[in-house]
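C-alpha cells for chain A. Residues wanted.
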C-alpha cells in the first residue's frame, strides 16, 4: 500500500492487490466534519458534478467500520437505487443507451441534455463543497444518466415499490 494526498490534503491509501483506495475512520470523520461527505440514506436521482467536472467520489463502509473503501465515481443525473427484486431489469435498463455512452467515452462528445425533474422524484443534491457520497452498504445499483433519463419514471416506481414488473418501456416523458 502507498499513501498519497489529494488536492485538498486528505490522505487515502491505495492497495495495489485490490486496486482500491481506502480511507480510515479518522480521515472520514475529518472529511465529514469539513462538510465534504454526504451519507446516502435514500434512493434517488443524483444532482451534482458530471464526470468532466470532477464527478462525485463514492465510498462505502467496510465490515469493521474502521475503514472505508473507495469504489468509484458517479456523476450528476445518475439514479441510485437499492438492489432489490428488480436486479435483472435494472441491469437491462443500465445497458441501454450504449451509443450515447460510447460517444462520450470514445469521442468525448456528451449528448446528454438536462431535463425538468418531476416533483415526485426523490433527489439527492450534492452541493459544491460535498464531493463524497458515503454508502452504508454495497447493495446499490447506479444507473447511468442516459438510461436514467429514458427510464426515470420506471426507476421511480421501483424506488417506491409500485413497479408492476415486466420489461420497462420507454417513458413518454424525459
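Reply:
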Amino acid at each position: 500500500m502507498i499513501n498519497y494526498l489529494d488536492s485538498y490534503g486528505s490522505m487515502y491509501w491505495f492497495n495495489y492487490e485490490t486496486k482500491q483506495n481506502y480511507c480510515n475512520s479518522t480521515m472520514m470523520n475529518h472529511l465529514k466534519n469539513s462538510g465534504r461527505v454526504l451519507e446516502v440514506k435514500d434512493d434517488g436521482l443524483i444532482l451534482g458534478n458530471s464526470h468532466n467536472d470532477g464527478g462525485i467520489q463514492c465510498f462505502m463502509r467496510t465490515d469493521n467500520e474502521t475503514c472505508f473503501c473507495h469504489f468509484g465515481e458517479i456523476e450528476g443525473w445518475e439514479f441510485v437505487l437499492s438492489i432489490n427484486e428488480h436486479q435483472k431489469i435494472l441491469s437491462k435498463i443500465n445497458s441501454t443507451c450504449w451509443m450515447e455512452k460510447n460517444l462520450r467515452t470514445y469521442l468525448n462528445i456528451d449528448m446528454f441534455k438536462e431535463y425538468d425533474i418531476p416533483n415526485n422524484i426523490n433527489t439527492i443534491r450534492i452541493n459544491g463543497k460535498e464531493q463524497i457520497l458515503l454508502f452504508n452498504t454495497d447493495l446499490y445499483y447506479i444507473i447511468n444518466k442516459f438510461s436514467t433519463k429514458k427510464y426515470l419514471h420506471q426507476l421511480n416506481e421501483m424506488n417506491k415499490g409500485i413497479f408492476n414488473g415486466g420489461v420497462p418501456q420507454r417513458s413518454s416523458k424525459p
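The two ends are 45 Å apart (CA to CA). The longest strand covers residues 67-74.
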